[in-house]
Specification:
The complex is a heterodimer of chains A (605) and B (348). Chain A has 605 residues and is an alpha+beta fold. Among the domains of chain A are: 50-164, Alpha-Beta Complex (Dipeptide-binding Protein, domain 1); 265-501, Dipeptide-binding Protein, domain 3. In chain A, 29% of the residues lie in helices and 19% in strands. Chain A is built from 17 helices and 19 strands. Chain A has helices at residues 39-48, 97-109, 111-117, 156-159, 164-167, 224-233, 244-251, 294-300, 306-313, 346-355, 386-401, 413-422, 439-443, 461-472, 476-493, 533-537, 571-601; strands at 19-24, 53-55, 62-64, 67-72, 78-83, 124-131, 134-139, 186-190, 197-202, 215-220, 238-242, 256-271, 319-320, 377-382, 406-411, 427-433, 496-509, 513-514, 539-540. The longest helix of chain A has 31 residues, at 571-601. Mean pLDDT of chain A is 85; it is low at 1-13, 550-576 and 592-605. In chain B, helix 6 packs antiparallel against helix 11 (258-284). The chains are: A alpha+beta (605), B mainly alpha (348). At the A-B interface, helix 3, strand 10, helix 6, helix 12 and helix 17 of A face helix 3, helix 4, helix 7, helix 8 and helix 12 of B.
């Protein structure tokens, strides 16, 4: 580990406070744990508050949080959590089971609160705290997603004054330097939702141990390039949400470590499998009938070159996609048998289409089984995502080679939501983040979700039955089997063709901070995880005696390809300086050209 | 406001703005002021109505955009819509909007869940600082360049200032901004790459002002350079028009020095069209400068509105649009009143 003091303009704070500055590329939408939705907000809550249950670094499985132990009755209708006794709120009050019960009750019964968290408390009837260290959940039907309840626990003695009316616009932001009352490893002391700077100070009495950094500052950058420049100048120590190209260029520097960390989610090509008016059952919109045929969709599974998409569209950052459960969640992972796997095989796709009756006509275009033309498939890309458009442009080519005409249109995400609900599309590209329990993701493909969150209008009775079974199945192994079977059905029915498992580009100034454990481990992200683990773990490079988890989980400073020996700062800057030179030249040339023209233009009058 | 010193000469030769002792407070002006004010009020009323319906036709459903991947059940969607009044019929929402407006309430942002007026106030200062300073600088430098260019048309200064400002004008602002960052932040290390102030510096102390100034230097420079051509070219061409006029020849014939002819006669008359452009641009100051705000990560009004479009965050869009249109209408009104003062002919 090399300690490069003050490298590339890094400035030491005068009072020796250790400030860890993180550059974000998206804003916090609300610091109120009952309102916020963005991933950045979840990160802020993880610093400010504690949770009943934590997530493991390996695969995000449940770990003790405020609850040291939990158990469930045989019928699964009663859950009991033992709460730690040694936790204090930042104002000195003790955190008790009553705070936990209060928070969860609010999430269960409050109008606004349940809009955000209600789905995690499915089947829960009553939440109580019989004593200061026990929380009991009483259910009307078993819930397989428990004990995972990702609701930040808030102090009752503060929040009881915030009425149901007020909470819908309650900011939960500090005023005049007084921190927001929480129990987490850091205290929120400065910042506003939608603002561009948030500051947190360490909680020296944190029950998991004192953090090694005194202060965490988040700066929001509106675009990627300036944020990367800020990392190079040392204005920030960490950056989240950068592209694969930036990761690649940063990896070449020896005082920066960069990664495309697995962030559990997938991107897919989705089909309109038959939009219907949910109330009347009448067909809705004008989806192409070919895509309502499972055989047609299944054949197209062989018409997607996933390796090429990863390589060209995702610049190598990501893995070829298979199923709707990302590989990070190894427990639920399902993979098709080798002979069933969707390889890129246009010949096989063609054969399957022939078998299903979609034969090639004399004009080189395939027809429907009844001989009528298929027509042009409408492919919708999201204009806010470059990978979306690129993926569909390739897909259009592959469809063309199969004798199927298509057109690609780029629209806003919000616009696409409307198009999906109206059923006036054939194909679109989008993606989902998948939570550690895939329950929500599985639900989006049930019949009930049509008109709500279903974006393919997919409906399969067998799938729905399995969904209902896994929802209440408390035996882990049986539930995993059910979920694998569901993935299998989806794979062959192909409402989605999963193209890629997504990643999140991150980089850290390894000459300044060290000891970041990836989640999932290995291959995961360093921050924006489930939990605040690395904020507790990170420490200044050089001062660290030893990282807690041994070397294989530690990013050693200066472990990059330092072969060229260039110090940070000159490589990219040269290119940029050349660019700046180009500005001057262009301005000069422009001046000359214009002056020439003026010279020949003659007098105006 | 200044009255052209050359007015007595000018009025003989050409119907240029005249000044008489009665023109400033004459009855014609009072009626003109009244007419213009009523017009501005009518525009504002129209904007208030249009403002509401304009954004309701945007595609997208805020609850679905925001809740994607977070909400799972229909109940969650409905609870969100009920809480923020989105489940009510449009006419009802419109009445709520009007009622709120009377009380100075712009509603609650759907994305940030805080009052829109608070969001706008937080950003208004930033935007005024950034775009305001740039507009003032661009005006002063641009007008000066325009005058010098026109007076020595075809000279070395003219060729470089006109060519240079046009080149900067046609250059994308974000690119110019990025180049500044590359050279002055990363290269020389003089200025920060973005943001409005440093951590832990009180923005209201002298050290804080210096800190903000350091942060604003590059974005202001970018915007100033981008705006420059606007003023330089208008000033240049209107001054060129004046140079050909006979009163200028007369002034020269009187034996006035070149600088006197320029500053006290020609320039004063040439300032009128420039005033119009300045007044119009001042109105647009509050709309912010989206690209520069983005590159330098400065949280201004322009960014707020662009971000709100994605949701669509109706109340933020309405609020931002209302403030912007009110500013433009007011600036127009001011320009009209000023014009009426400078040039009596427009009063009829």
């Amino acid at each position: 580990m090399s300690f490069v003091a003050g490298a590339a303009g890094a400035t030491e704070p005068e009072d020796n406070r250790v400030t860890f500055t993180v550059g974000l590329t998206n804003q916090v939408d609300s610091f109120n744990p009952f309102l916020g939705i963005e991933a950045e907000s979840f990160e802020m809550w993880a610093l400010t508050y504690d949770y009943l249950i934590g997530y493991s670094m390996e695969d995000m499985s449940p770990m003790p949080g405020l609850a040291t132990e939990w158990s469930t009755s045989d019928d699964g209708l009663e859950w009991t959590f033992d709460i730690r006794e040694d936790v204090l709120w930042s104002d000195g009050e003790p955190l008790t089971a009553e705070d936990v019960a209060y928070t969860l009750n609010r999430a269960l019964t409050g109008e606004v609160e349940s809009a955000t968290w209600g789905a995690y408390l499915d089947g829960v009837d009553e939440i109580s705290a019989p004593d200061t260290t026990t929380v009991v959940l009483t259910l009307s039907e078993p819930s397989a997603t428990l004990p995972l309840i990702p609701v930040p626990i808030v102090p009752e003695h503060i929040w009881q004054d915030i009425s149901e009316e007020e909470v819908s616009s309650y900011a939960a932001e500090p005023s005049s330097g007084e921190p927001i009352v929480g129990s987490g490893p850091f205290r929120f002391v400065e910042g506003q939702a939608g603002g561009s700077l948030y500051r947190f100070e360490k909680n020296p009495d944190y029950w998991k141990g004192e953090p090694h950094i005194d202060e965490v500052v988040f700066r929001v950058y509106q675009s990627e390039d300036p944020a990367v420049q800020a990392l190079l100048t040392g204005e920030i120590d960490f950056i989240d949400g950068i592209s694969a190209l930036q990761v690649e260029s940063l990896q070449a520097r020896d005082n920066v470590m960069a990664t495309n960390g697995d962030s559990p989610g997938f991107d897919e090509i989705a089909f309109n499998t038959g939009a219907v008016d949910v109330e009347t059952g009448e067909p809705l919109g004008d989806g192409n009938p070919a895509l309502q045929d499972q055989a047609f969709r299944h054949a197209l599974g062989y018409a997607v070159d996933r390796d090429l998409i990863i390589d060209r569209v995702y610049q190598g950052a990501g893995q070829p996609g298979i199923s709707i459960v990302p590989p990070a969640y190894s427990t639920f992972l399902w993979e098709p048998a080798e002979e069933d796997a969707y390889t890129f095989d246009l010949e096989r796709a063609g054969e399957l289409l022939e078998e299903a009756g979609y034969t090639l006509g004399a004009d080189g275009l395939r027809t429907m089984p009844d001989g009528t033309p298929i027509g042009e498939l409408r492919l919708f890309a999201r204009s806010d995502s470059k990978t979306s458009l690129d993926t569909l442009n390739y897909f259009q080519e592959w469809l063309g080679e199969l004798g199927i005409e298509s057109s690609v249109t780029s629209v806003d995400s919000s616009n696409l939501t409307d198009i999906i609900l109206e059923g006036t599309f054939d194909v679109f590209q989008w993606g989902w983040y998948v939570e550690p329990d895939p329950h929500s993701m599985l639900s989006y493909l049930t019949c009930d979700q049509r008109g709500d969150w279903s974006d393919t209008w997919y409906c399969n009775e067998e799938y729905d039955t399995l969904y209902e079974q896994q929802r209440v199945e408390l035996d882990e192994d049986s539930r995993v089997d059910l979920i694998k079977r569901m993935q299998e059905i989806l794979y062959f029915d192909a409402p989605y063709l999963v193209t890629a498992y997504s990643t999140n580009g991150q980089a850290v100034r390894s000459d300044r901070f060290t000891c970041f454990t990836p989640q999932p481990n290995p291959g995961g992200v360093w921050l924006m995880q489930y939990g605040a683990y690395n904020y507790l773990n990170a420490r200044p490079t050089g001062t660290a005696t030893e990282c807690p988890d041994g070397s294989e989980v530690t990013i050693a400073g200066g472990a990059g390809t330092g072969a060229d020996g260039s110090d940070g700062g000159s490589g990219v800057n040269l290119a940029l300086l050349l660019g700046a030179g180009a500005v001057v030249v262009a301005a000069g040339a422009g001046a000359v050209v214009l002056s020439r023209r003026r010279g020949t233009a003659g007098d105006r009058e | 406001m200044t009255i052209p010193a050359s007015a007595d000469v000018a009025s003989v030769t050409t119907p240029k703005p005249r000044s008489g002792s009665g023109s400033r407070s004459g009855p014609g002006y009072r009626g003109y002021v009244l007419r213009k004010c009523l017009g501005a009020l009518a525009s504002l009323a129209f904007m208030i109505v249009l403002n509401f319906f304009l954004f309701r036709v945007l595609p997208g459903d805020p609850a679905r955009t925001l809740g994607r991947g977070r909400f799972r059940t229909r109940e969650q969607l409905e609870a969100f819509n009920r809480t923020y009044g989105l489940d009510e019929p449009l006419w009802r929402q419109f009445l709520t909007y009007l009622g709120n407006l009377v009380r100075g309430d712009l509603g609650v942002s759907l994305r940030y869940r805080v009052p829109v007026s608070q969001l706008i106030m937080d950003r208004l200062g930033t935007t005024l600082l950034l775009v305001g300073i740039s507009t003032i600088l661009a005006t002063i430098i641009g007008v000066w360049m325009g005058i010098r260019s026109a007076w020595k048309r075809g000279g070395l200064f003219d060729r470089f200032s006109t060519g240079g400002s046009l080149t900067l004008y046609s250059m994308p602002e974000w690119w110019l901004g990025l180049m500044f960052i590359a050279v002055f932040s990363v290269g020389v290390g003089l200025f920060p790459t973005g943001g409005l102030h440093s951590v832990g510096v009180d923005p209201w102390s002298p050290a804080g002002w210096l800190d903000v100034a350091r942060h604003l230097a590059l974005p202001v420079a970018t915007l100033t350079l981008a705006y420059l051509a606007d003023y330089a070219l208008i000033m240049r061409s209107s001054l060129l028009d004046e140079i050909g006029e006979e009163y200028v020849t007369t002034a020269r014939a009187k034996g006035l020095r070149d600088v006197q002819v320029r500053d006290r006669h020609a320039v004063r008359n040439a300032l009128l069209p420039t005033t119009t452009v300045i007044a119009l641009n001042v109105g647009f100051v509050v709309t912010g400068a989206i690209t520069v705000e983005t590159v330098f990560s400065i949280p201004g009004l322009g960014l707020l509105a662009t971000e709100a479009l994605k949701v669509p965050d109706f109340w933020v869009l309405q609020g931002a649009f209302l403030v912007a249109s009110a500013a433009v209408i007011l600036a127009n009104l001011a320009a009209n009143l000023l014009y009426g003062l400078l040039d009596p002919r427009v009063r009829t």
